[in-house]
TrEMBL record:
Membrane-crossing residue ranges in chain numbering: none
Protein's name according to its UniProt entry: Pentapeptide repeat-containing protein
Any Pfam family hit: Pentapeptide_4
Length: 211
């Protein structure tokens, strides 16, 4: 194994078996893995931002609250995997196999689903955007989000912004399904001062809103 020191916690694996492991909450951004098996492993609340997991086996893995942002998953297999509140944004799904995978409140943005296999567009609990949608929120909510994004930990996490640095409508859309506008405004204003640690996925903010 070679470790990429640019991101704490990420790794490089080449043709190895890391089955039935617990990777929960790990930041796997910019990891680079090839032809490795992670079957039965827990990837809940993991960031795969900018990572390469090509020709890897994720049989029976769980991906609750995981985020695949700009990830390369070419030729990987997700048979019998479970996805819940998972985001795929501008992901390479070339020849990715989703046979018998389970989905709940999963969002695909800017992904070519015609290149993957065993994923019908009529699968329940999947939302598909061909591109990042327009942001449609009140001025008060927009101001609260922009205020929250001045927090150094929120800014570093990149969970609320696009690659251009603007508010990410997909993430806000997901939050709007779970919380009222009043709850969102109150939460974003509060987290400006209260978020005081590193985090890597939107799931951390979900817990903040719930609390």
């Amino acid at each position: 194994m070679a470790r990429n020191n640019s991101v704490k916690g990420n790794f490089h694996y080449n043709k190895v078996e890391k089955m039935n492991k617990n990777f929960m909450y790990n930041n796997l951004a910019r990891s680079n893995c090839y032809a490795s098996s992670f079957a039965g492993s827990n990837f809940n609340f993991v960031s795969f931002r900018g990572a390469h997991f090509k020709s890897c086996d994720f049989y029976g893995c769980t991906f609750k609250g995981a985020e695949f942002i700009g990830t390369n998953l070419k030729n990987s297999k997700f048979r019998h995997a479970k996805f819940e509140n998972t985001i795929f944004e501008e992901v390479n799904l070339d020849n990715v196999d989703f046979r018998d995978a389970e989905f709940k409140d999963v969002i695909f943005v800017g992904c070519d689903l015609s290149k993957c296999t065993n994923l019908g567009v009529d699968v329940l609990n999947i939302t598909i955007f061909d591109e990042i949608p327009e942001l449609n929120i009140s001025q008060e909510l927009e101001e609260a989000i922009n205020k929250a994004m001045t927090n150094s930990f929120i800014k570093a996490s990149r969970v609320l912004d696009t690659k251009e640095g603007k508010i990410n409508p997909v993430k806000i859309c997901l939050l709007q399904k779970l919380f009222s506008e009043e709850e969102l405004i109150k939460g974003f204003n509060a987290m400006t001062e209260e978020i005081d640690r590193d985090f890597y996925t939107l799931s951390y903010l979900l817990r903040f809103f719930k609390n």
